[in-house]
Each structure stands twice: as C-alpha cells, then as structure tokens.
Design brief:
Largest sheet: none
Strand content: under 5%
Radius of gyration: 19 Å
Oligomer: single chain
Mean pLDDT: 87
Number of helices: 10
Helix content: over 70%
Order of helices and strands: HHHHHHHHHH
Number of strands: 0
Distance between the termini: 19 Å
Structural class: mainly alpha
Low-confidence stretches: none
Length: about 250
C-alpha cells in the first residue's frame, strides 16, 4: 500500500514507517550485515597487531597505534554505504521503493538514516574493542593513554566511520552504481590520500579521510584538530548526500 493512500499520517509517523522499511531491507541482506561484521573484525584484528608491534616504541602516537585498524576497516564501512544504496538500482528495486514512498526526499533521508545508525553503533563498539585489543598488546605502555584521549578517539572513530559510509552512499546515488563508487573511493583513499598525501602539501589535510582521521591521533600537526577535522569530513559527506538526493529527485528510477 502506498503511504499516501487513505488518511494522511503525520510527517514524523510517515518518516518512521519509511525508516522501518529501509532498516528491514538492510537487516535481511546478508551481504550488508557481512560488511558490518568485516568492519568489526578487520579493525579489531589490525589494532591488536598494531598494539603488539608498537609496544616497544615509547615515542609513537599511542592513540593512533591503538586505533590504526580503522585504516583497513574503513573500507568495510565505505562498502556498507555503497552497497546499501546500490541494491536499489538492481532489477527495478528503486521503482518499487518510490511506488511505496513517492516523496523521494523522504525516502532518501530514511535510507541515509538507516545507513548511519547501524554504522555508528558498530563503529563505537568496534572502537572500544580495538582499544581493548591494542591495550592488551601495548602492556604498560598503554598507561600513557589518558581516559579523555581514549573517549575522544573512540567516539570520534565511530563518527568518522559513519561519515565515510554516508559519503559512499551519496556518491553511489549520484553514480547509480556501487561498483563505480567503490572504484572511485577505495583507490582514492589507498593511493591518492595515503600514498601521496604527505608529499602533496597541506591541502591534503582537507581530504575527507585525512581530515577525519585527525581525531584518531593524540596530537596533530596539520591544519585541523580532531573536531574541526571531523567537521570537514562531515561537510564532504553532506555534499555527497545532497548531490545524491538531487540525483534521486531529478533522474528517472
């Protein structure tokens, strides 16, 4: 039944109904749940290994050492955001979604929320697990991490992963293909930003991944601090979602 048939529900009730249906889609697709599991497993495992490797390096950035598993783990977060949207472009699924929810802006907002909430929850749990795993490897060196630093890093880690998933979701809506979005984002993060970022000058501090990762460091010598870096990443994600919403509203299903 279309949401506009019969008595018109309040906007909040209609949005909640759409959000529930989008969450059901995510919950019933094993590939999407698998990406969240991969996010947890990869981040925790790599952080545990990094803790062991960094246990004898007293001058290292302990917070980044403990949360360095986010670097490979973010690929799973990006994949989750891209796959959650790309499923709508297979076999006419988007036409069915828009037949049930003709207000495309409301549908895309619910889709984005259904991506953001589980990513944030899993991201926060993952950050906690990564910190605990890394601390076990660091041993007494972990005492150099203050409670405030760990809380900031853990919360910031969850937010950062969520923003990267939303960035991927918005780009996928623009390109109408998860494969295309991943083909842009993953090489960008692994090659452009990671490999040549330090040699390319200070402007790379404002790239979405490098800006957001400032929150994972005990101290940061770039142009952005922890929260201003996340704000820059949020601006990238918001721009991608705005472009995605425009694409969904203007282009044929």
């Amino acid at each position: 039944m279309r949401l506009q048939d019969g008595p018109q529900p309040r906007a909040y009730e209609a949005y909640t109904a759409v959000l529930h249906s989008e969450w059901l889609k995510i919950r019933t697709l094993r590939s999407l749940l698998g990406t969240l599991l991969a996010l947890f497993a990869a981040t925790t495992a790599f952080s545990a290994v990094a803790g062991l490797d960094g246990s004898s390096a007293p001058d290292s950035d302990l917070l980044f050492q403990a949360l360095s598993g986010v670097l490979p783990g973010q690929i799973a977060a990006i994949s989750f955001g891209a796959l959650a949207v790309s499923t709508e472009f297979h076999e006419g699924a988007l036409r069915l979604s828009l037949a049930a929810v003709p207000r495309r802006g409301r549908w895309f907002a619910a889709k984005s929320t259904a991506i953001a909430v589980p990513t944030l929850v899993v991201g926060l749990v993952t950050a906690l697990a990564a910190l605990l795993a890394a601390r076990a490897g660091l041993g007494e060196a972990a005492d150099g991490l203050s409670t405030g630093e760990q809380v900031r890093g853990g919360v910031g880690c969850g937010i950062y992963l969520t923003l990267m998933a939303l960035l991927a979701a918005g780009l996928t809506a623009v390109l109408r293909s998860g494969t295309a979005a991943l083909s842009v984002l993953i090489p960008f993060i692994l090659v452009v930003s990671f490999v040549i970022g330090d040699a390319a000058g200070g402007f790379t501090d404002y790239l979405p991944d490098r800006a957001g990762q400032a929150v994972l460091h005990t101290s940061y010598d770039g142009h952005l601090g922890p929260w201003s870096g996340l704000a820059v990443t949020a601006a990238w994600a918001a721009a991608a979602l705005a472009a995605g919403a425009w694409s969904v509203r203007r282009r044929d299903a």
